[in-house]
Amino acid sequence: MFRARTALQLVARHPARFPSSPRLHSSRSPRPEDLPPAQTHSVQEGFAQGPVFVFNVAKRFIRYSAIGLVALGLTSAVAFEGTHFWVENVEFALPKDDAESRKWEWNLERENWSGDVESGGTDPALGFQGRHLVRAAWMAQKWGVDQSTAVLSSDAVSQSDGGLLGPRGLIIIDPRLVKAEVFLRDAIAIAEGKGIERKLRPWTMSQLLSLHASILERMGAESMKTAKAQYERAWSSQPFIGPQSARIALKIGDLNRRLGHDTEALAWWNRAVHIAQPNLEKTGVPSAMPSSPFSQRSLLFALSSLSAFYATTGDFTKAQSTAETSLDLIRSVRQPESIASISPAHALHALTLLQRSSVLAVHLAEVLYAQKKPAILSTQWLTTAAESSQRVLRGLTGLPLNNLTADQVLAPPSTTVESSFINSPTLNKPATSLYRDARRTAAEAWNLTGILLETQIKNPRAAFAAYENAVRLAGSSKEVGTPADKTLKADWEVIWGNYIRLKPKMEE
Asked: Which DSSP string do the residues of 426-452 spell out, in sequence order?
């Protein structure tokens, strides 16, 4: 009892020395005034540091975001200007043409974005914005843009005008052309102001207008009038009449014909003929070829347009005379004995003339048939045209020309133009265009041959062989019954329709 009482007395006298029991501990949170001084200071400091911490985090976020945005902007600017630098100094650089390319004047055929065939890059007088717009137009046309499209109604344009047939008869225009047209239009507006100050290169304005007109021409029927007006402005903007002027006159003539302005078309075509052969004393086909290779090609293009015009307007006498005299002009040019023995530039010129003879032969065959001459004459000219175009194809793909016979005509084994043409920055485009034109002409000639053999000469087996040749040339090598890449849908439907119509009869 003594010990117990003593212990209780000690607890009562010195409570701080003995901790209280957990059961007696209060669950109420201590108030700040109940805490020791050091602990009170720690709690107050924690409350004060909350807003400061949030502010510091926000400040760091803004700083890093600003740095990221600046870095992204600089990267985008460098990439943007780097692309323009590449186009200016690589794509627009003056190609190192060999002596042969210049001898055969393929440098004059090159698409000119600089305003001077002897200078590379854009015209410095266009200024910073103008030069960027010209490069942007080139990039939009060559490299493409976003996936947006422009749509016109089916009565505005046709598929052959450069659009793609869409749902419910709508025509979808290539957005690359739309963007390029806008950029060039703005560049021309700037060039007009610079032209007043007489700072541009002599041919810059004419070349920009020609490029703009070319794009408008491919955008459809609604743009043809504007394209013609731009070509006329390009004609008026020329510093002088030169060899290239014949091509502008030819374009204006072709567009006038498509718009139904026959009188104007004839005037411009005859002007193109006179520019190509200045020594011509009267209107019509000259009696001799010009010495310039570029002028030879320009002259034959103009004569082809004249021949087609006379044929389609019913003036068969002039059409026949124009076609026959033009063919005589081509024969007057000495042709190489072997394509393999001459330079690619010379070969491409010879093949171009051969293709022109093929086109004129088709015109002549149609005129003779319209004049009710014996069908065998038209068939012979069509066969000659088809074989000539196929020789062009073989020459462009690096195959010998003399392995082709009238009895066994093979489609071109390859759609790849020979590397000697493709690897040349000057010959690439004209060689590719020539391949496309030759393939189309050969298919058309064989199809017409089949029609005459079937309906006039009454030889269905020979007609089917002609249709088969046409299908080989116009059709895809990957999938039977589908057109090749550059074959127009309307042409393919006619060719394939004739083939499948006669095929069951040949299998009976």
From this structure: TTHHHHHHHHHHHHHHHHHHHHHHHHH
- C-alpha to C-alpha distance for 9 and 136, rounded to whole angstroms: 101
Which secondary-structure segment (H or E) carries 165? strand 163-165
Domain ranges of the chain: 108-234, 366-508
Per residue in 131-188, pLDDT tens? 999 999 999 999 976 655 555 544 444 444 445 555 545 567 788 899 999 999 999 9
Identify the three-state secondary structure at position 31: coil
The edge-to-edge listing of strands for the beta sheet with 163-165 is 150-152, 171-173, 163-165
Q: What CA–CA distance (Å, rounded) separates 156 from 137? A: 24
0.85 surpassed by pTM: no
How many other CB atoms sit within 10 Å of the CB of residue 120? 15
CA 97 to chain centre: 23
Residue 292 DSSP symbol: -
What is the length of the chain? 508
Sorted by sequence, the CB contacts under 8 Å of residue 28 that are 6+ apart come out as none
Distance set, CA 74 to CA 61, 66, 67, 269, 340 (Å): 20, 12, 11, 53, 53
Q: Which whole-number Å values give the CA distances from 503 to 182, 376, 467, 497, 507, in the listed order? A: 49, 23, 9, 10, 6
> For 68-126, how does the pLDDT look when each residue is reduced to its tens digit (9 = 90+)?
888 777 787 788 888 989 999 988 888 876 789 999 999 999 888 998 888 889 999 99
Backbone angles phi, psi at 93, to 5 degrees: -70, 150
Residue 59 and residue 52: Cα distance in Å, rounded?
Answer: 10
366-396 per-position pLDDT tens digit: 999 999 999 999 999 999 999 999 999 999 9
Tokens of 14: 């010195």
Q: Report the distance separating Cα 235 and Cα 258, nearest Å.
A: 19
Find the farthest-apart pair of alpha carbons in the chain and give their distance in angstroms, rounded.
154
Residue 457 CB-half CA count within 13 A: 21
* Closest by Cα among 427, 374, 384 to 406: 384
Cα–Cα distance, 248 to 256 (Å, whole number):
12
Report the amino acid identity of residue 164. Answer: L
